[in-house]
Amino acid sequence: MPDHNPPAAALPPGLAAPPEVPWPEGLTRVPYWVFQREDVAALEQTQVFRGETWNYLCLEAEIANPGDYRATTLGGVPILAVRDHDGEIYAFENRCVHRGALIALEDFGHAREFTCVYHAWSYDLQGNLKGVAFKDGINGQGGMPECFRMSEHSPRKLRTAVVHGLVFASASDTVPPIEEYLGDEIMERIGRVLGGREVEVIGRFTQELPNNWKLYVENLRDSYHASLLHLFFTTFELNKLNMKGGLIVSESGGNHVSYSAIDREAEAKAANDYAAQNIRSESDYRLKDPSVLEGEDEFGDGVTLQILSVFPGFVLQQIQNALAIRQVVPRGVGRTDLHWTYFGFKDDSPALRKMRLKQGNLVGPAGYVSMEDGCVGGFVQRGVVGASDRHAVLEMGGTDAASTRTRATEASVRGFWKAYRACTGL
Ligand code: FES
Ligand SMILES: [Fe+2]
Question: Which residue's CA lies nearest to atom 3 of ligand 1?
C-alpha cells in the first residue's frame, strides 16, 4: 500500500504545533502568533530567560550590606539576590527544596540565614541547605532516612555580575561575560548615567500591562512612536524626531540606546515638519504649573532623553532628570508586570532631588507619557485577535538593525527580533 500520509513538516524546536504561518526570512515581518501562543511563552522561559542571556535582578544599592537580600524575578521565576559576608552577591531560586514554598516572603530584608515558614528548613546566604527540622526524628522515630544528604539539595543557583551598580544574573554557564554581552557602546551609555555614583532609590511601583511582554519591549525600543503617540512630548518639546540624537543598536541586535538632545535651532523647523504632515503634535494645552518640566543638564552633554535596553527585559531610563530602571516580567501570554525603580544619587542637591520627583510625573503609570505605553500594547493584543496568520510590518528606516542618526526608524525593534530569533530558533 502506498503511504498517503505526507511526512509532517519539521516543527520549529519547542513548539507544540506548527505555527499558523511560517516566520518569513529577514527582520521586517513579525507574525502575530508570537504574541498569542502558550507554547511560545513556555519556550521563552527556557530559551530566552533561562537561556544565553543576562537578566537584571536589582540595584546593588538595594543589597548594600552583608545579609541584605532582595526577592526579585527572572522571567517570572522567583529569585533571591543576597549579599554574603564575603561581600559577594549570590542569586538562587526563591524556592525551598523540600516542597517548593517561597524561601523569603518579603521583597526586601536582612537575614543571617533563611528559614522556610512551611517546615523550617534553613539555608545560608548562598542558598545552601543547612538545616532540616526534626532530621533525626523524635525519640528514635520518624526523621529523614540515613541516605538523605543535605548537600545534594539546593535551589538552582545563578551566575551574577555587577555593572555600574546594576546586578544581573544568568542561568547559563556558557553566556559570555556581561561586558561582552553588552558591548562597549552600551557599557559606556550605562556608565554615562551610573558610573562612579552612589545610587539612592526614591520610589518604586509596578504597572500591570494587558499584553504580551514582547509588545512592551517593542514599544520601549520604538523611537518612531515616541513623538506621535505621546502628545505630551511634542507639545512640551521634550522629544521630537528632528531633534539631535540617534540610535545605537548592538551587534546582536538585543541591546539598544535611543537618545536625543534639545536643539533650539531645529525647533522652528520641527514645528513646520509636524504641521506639514498634519500630525497631531501641537495643541493649545499648556500646563498651569510648568515647573514639572524644569530640569538641569546634570550629565553635561545636553542629552535630555536616553532610553537604553538590554535583551531581554531591562531598561535604563533618563528623561531629563527622571532616572529609572524598568524590569519587564512576563506573567503569561497576555499579561506583563513592569517594575519601575526610580532613583537619584546620594550627593543630589535638594533642588535636584525635588526635580527628579516632580519629573516622575511625566513618566510612570500615572504620568503623562507612560500611561499611553501601558495602553497601546493592550490595543495591539486586542487588535490581533483572529489574525495569528498575519504579520506586523517593520520597514520604517529600512530593513536592517544597525545604529543610525535618525530616530524615524524601527531599526532597534528589528534588532530585538534579531536577538529573539537567534535565542529561540523560531
Ligand atoms: S516547603 Fe520549605 S520546609 Fe517544607
Ligand atoms: Fe512610548
Answer: 119
CB neighbours (10 Å) of residue 291?
Answer: 10
> Could you tell me if the CB of 54 is within 6 A of ligand 1?
no
* Ranges of the chain whose pLDDT falls below 70: 1-9, 237-242, 263-284, 364-366
312 closest CA partner among 174, 229, 218? 218
Q: Does residue 99's CB lie within 6 angstroms of at least one atom of ligand 1?
A: yes
Quick one: which atom of ligand 1 is closest to the CA of 121? 3
pLDDT digit string (tens) for 358-389? 888 777 666 777 889 999 999 999 999 999 99
- 175 in ligand 1 pocket by Cβ < 6 Å? no
Query: Which ranges of 73-212 does DSSP label H, i.e. alpha helix?
Result: 178-182, 184-194
- Answer yes or no: are the C-beta atoms of 357 and 202 closer than 8 Å: yes
User: What is the C-alpha separation between 382 and 380, in angstroms, rounded?
Assistant: 5
Does residue 129's CB lie within 6 angstroms of at least one atom of ligand 1? no
Give me 229's grid cell. Answer: 503617540
pLDDT tens sequence across 271-287? 666 666 666 555 667 77
